[in-house]
Amino acid sequence: MARFFRFTVLAPFCLSVSAQTASSHISTLHTSTQIVLEDVTVTDSHGKAVHGLTRDSFIISEDGKPQTINGFDEHSLLPTDATKIEPFPSLPPGVFTNYTPTPETGEINVLLLDTLNTPLADQAYARGQVLQFLKSMKPGTRMAIFVMTRQLHLLQGFTSNPELLKAALDNKHSASLSSLLDSPVSGGLAGDSTLSDSFSEAVGNDPSFDQVVASLQQLEAEQAAFLLTIRAQYTLDAMNQMARYLSGLAGRKNLLWFSGSFPLDLMPDGDLPDPFAAMGDSEDEFRETVTLMGRSHVAVYPVDARGLMANPVMNAENSGKKYTNDPKNMQKDNSKFFDQTVSEHSTMALMAEKTGGKAYYNTNGLKQAVDDAILSGSNYYSLSYVPHSHRWDGNYHSISIKLADSALVKEKLKLTYRVGYYADDPEGPPVRKPKEVPLLATSTPEPPPLTRRETAMQAAMQYGAPQPTELVMKVLVQPKGNKPEDNAAEDNELVPNIHGPYLRYTVDYAADARNIEFIANPDGTFKAVVEFVIVVYDDQGRVVNTSNRTAVANVDLAHRAAMIKSGMHFHQEISVPAKGPFWLRIGIHDRTSDRLGSVEVNLEQVKRAAIAAAATPQSPPPAAAKPN
Predict the structure, then answer these.
(1) Minimal CA–CA distance to 207: which of 302, 100, 325, 309?
(2) Of 408, 476, 501, 513, which one has the greatest count of Cβ atoms within 10 A?
(3) Which domain holds residue 318?
(4) Taking a C-beta distance cutoff of 8 angstroms, is the pair 298, 253 a contact?
């Protein structure tokens, strides 16, 4: 039986809605024309930004067809006083928000330290180069620092204070060994000694062991491919989470991604008995990532944290029996190193091209790479157009931007921009290509994998993760009474071995409804499908309790307008064990548009606010007026 509950707004009416699942076959009301926004960086032969161009200086085409430039603007580094960030708004006790104050003008920069894909030694080198950059960082440069492990962590929010940024790099999470690299120290490059190498050296050139060596090599390759696929999944999930976090912030965002490998592609190894068994495939996930980056106005600047790499085949430790027993091994390792390096650099370049950034590799000047990326991302032209023949066809649409002035063409200026986009419906499900079904089914079928929407919500609700801002929200968290209860609140799902007594808390949402998608019903009403989630974590980041409710609201035009004006409100209750420190991760998910918002609350702050409020003397009511 469906449960019914009340869904209210800041208006003198309320809506009765039912908990149910949204239909995937509904027509969406599009209230605006699709606009394509392109940022173009123009540099001369010395890499310096070119200013003073006009709308008529550019010619833009989509799929070879000229487009009309409707919007044009030039952006350049702003003076320090124009980049000040407004102070965070003062909130009443017990109120929390995922709103992030940023300046209305100018770009913002994000530094992502990728420890998941970077050997430890290269992490130290990259951090040292970033510290060198911070020592000479230009005043007014706004930057935030994230670190990627198996999830995304925010080390420092947006600030122009280099001392705060330096302190973030000293955070214990800014460097760590990756358990998913073949070698956490070297990264598992070609030339590293493996079990098959050791076995081959032990048996020498005995041909009777050739099949054993080949089997070991096949097993190692498949294990490496499995680890690479897992890393690719974690990497793209983190990049998607980053895009959702940045989507609610105004202006262009420059993402400087420091990594020691870019695990999005794996070519077949022709030397293996089954070369295609060791291949990775992240095409669908990569497509979704670059689409989210484009919609969130994020340009990615991948930086190879390994700097200028030498072929590990030439290392002293690799000059022993492995190559003397079989000289072909050197040729194989040379080819493997070349193929792996080319593949990773191609992935870097592809990520940059698809988002309008620039890739940096084969250089030890990582500080200069940061300087160049920020300079490039701060001096650009914004062009916008409405495609003449727009359809949500899911196809890739290429974009070409050229200079119209022949004199400018002769100067051989370089244009950097996003070279295309996927025309995936923003309100539709993620595009997936059909997967091959195995001929033989296993006796115990595996559960279906999580959908991309489920993994996005899962990432948004992780303890300590960045708070996505696609849906800006405020929540009021208050204790419901001060006496422990033996039973948990309705709809709560406690993990096993969690017992009472419990303290109950009320959570009242106020979400900005302007970014919530309303569906036009045939009867003239509008439908919104919103998921409200609360996860309780202990101080070790372990899940203790959850509450998940999906509200389906049908409103008329007047009520929809009032909701957009005053906000979407919802009430939820959650139970927490009476003893111990706990945190609430509170999230909202628009099931139609797939937009997310979340906020993390330390319950100790809520308790202190409640104690302070109880101790504050209440003003006596005004005395009644005496009759004359």
Answers:
(1) 325
(2) 513
(3) 108-378
(4) yes
